[in-house]
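for the recovery benchmark. tokens below, seq after
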């Protein structure tokens, strides 16, 4: 450097530390900074930017260069951060962007659907050829449900039962969605496995109820909550497949760079999937299997939800797409 590096750091360090403290104060809420703080912030930020230019030109110290780079980057984020949006506006924007992401990433959604269908067809054929495979395919916790479908009707659901089951379905199905996305750390292998397993359970139910009046009743009963729930699982699964694909095929970028490019899409897919699962939970708990609800009522609700979901995914965000 034109001047001694040690002297340079000693002369400038106090200003860098003060700028660092102002960044910490204003990073999450710039309104915490007073008018004097803002004036100091601007002055210190400009001076630190000049210091960075000097260090880049004359210094061979990578630690000092990295420190000033980070300081300037964080300072820029505070100075030029967009003002926060009201909660409702932020949620609306997120919902519109989620629909755009589903359209943009539709090959991954369709891949998730296809894997689930393959699992269902395979399980149905496997149980047909060898009935003992039913014990392998259907988890112990669901065998009682299968037997109930074979032998008896469901009864009326009171408010206390509905609330308890809503909480259970939200917890359980959210865990399923998060587990499917977490499977992306195995480059999508666990995501594919979970899709196959969930599809296989449906295929086993399909086989066991085929040829009986129970099958049509089962499908009608699953229809109302199945529209948001199954859609949510497939959309969340698309997030896991997208992560796996990105790590396997990063293109000319590093894997970290490639993941950063898709991270927002992954978050939107997972978020939308979980929201759909939450929507399904109270419907499943209090409506779908309630003996007080007629089959035409179930079909009407299921069809309405399907129409609304397709309209949302197809149309939402088209006129408000970011430029």
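predicted aa per position
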């Amino acid at each position: 450097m034109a001047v001694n590096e040690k002297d340079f750091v000693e002369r400038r360090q106090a200003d860098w530390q003060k700028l660092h403290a102002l960044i910490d104060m204003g990073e999450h809420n710039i309104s915490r900074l007073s008018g004097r703080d803002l004036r100091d912030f601007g002055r210190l930020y400009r001076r630190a930017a000049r210091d960075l230019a000097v260090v880049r030109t004359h210094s061979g110290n990578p630690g000092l260069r990295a420190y000033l780079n980070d300081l300037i980057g964080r300072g820029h984020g505070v100075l030029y951060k967009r003002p926060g949006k009201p909660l409702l506006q932020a949620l609306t924007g997120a919902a519109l962007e989620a629909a755009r992401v589903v359209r943009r990433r539709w090959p991954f959604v369709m891949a998730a659907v296809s894997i689930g269908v393959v699992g269902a067809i395979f399980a149905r054929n496997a149980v047909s050829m060898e009935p003992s495979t039913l014990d392998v395919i259907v988890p112990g916790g669901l065998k009682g449900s299968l037997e109930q479908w074979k032998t008896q009707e469901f009864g009326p659901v009171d408010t206390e039962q509905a609330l308890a089951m809503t909480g259970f379905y939200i917890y359980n199905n959210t865990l399923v969605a998060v587990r499917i996305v977490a499977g992306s750390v195995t480059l999508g292998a666990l995501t594919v496995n979970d899709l196959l397993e969930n599809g296989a359970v449906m295929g086993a139910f399909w086989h066991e109820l085929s040829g009986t009046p129970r099958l049509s009743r089962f499908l009608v009963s699953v229809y109302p909550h199945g529209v948001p729930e199954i859609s949510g699982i497939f959309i969340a699964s698309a997030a896991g497949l997208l992560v796996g694909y990105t790590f396997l095929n990063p293109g000319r970028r590093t894997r970290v760079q490639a993941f950063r490019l898709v991270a927002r899409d992954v978050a939107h897919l997972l978020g939308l999937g979980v929201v759909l699962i939450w929507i399904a939970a109270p419907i499943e708990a209090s409506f779908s299997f309630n003996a007080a609800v007629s089959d035409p009522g179930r079909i009407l609700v299921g069809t309405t939800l399907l129409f609304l979901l397709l309209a949302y995914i197809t149309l939402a965000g088209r006129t408000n797409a970011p430029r």
